[in-house]
Write a structure and sequence with these properties.
The chain is built from five helices and two strands; from the N terminus they run H-H-H-H-H-E-E. With about 140 residues, it is mostly helical. Helix 1 packs antiparallel against helix 2 and helix 1 runs parallel beside helix 5.
Amino acid sequence: MLTQLFTYLKYEQQLLEQLISYAQEQQEALVKIDIEKVASTAELQNEALKLLRSAENQRIKLTQNWLKVSRSSAMKMKMSDLVKHFQGEELKELSALKEYMQILTDRLKKINMDNRILSNRARRSFAEFLEVFRENQKHVCNVTV
């Protein structure tokens, strides 16, 4: 049971790392205003999120069966709650995993916040660009559009 739990936690870690990679790719695309790349990385992120939700559900089921708690209790459990049920090497490994996953989660939050800012700037810039066309009576570089 514990081996399976660690397996799902490690898999969730890998998926978080993958989400960070996709978010970084998306950030580069936002900076370059590469709409196709933004869309393709968003699709990859959605697929990784589906896998993450599935792994999380499996982990919740394992926790529920192992600790004999309700599904809602298992869903509310944090890694700091799980740590209380381990000893020795397993405790060290889970504690290290907990800290690393916290770092990954914080990093993903920051990148996503930056991406949100970049996408809002791009949207505003595009709107301003369109406004220039409208205000200048459809003349651009002395050419009527």
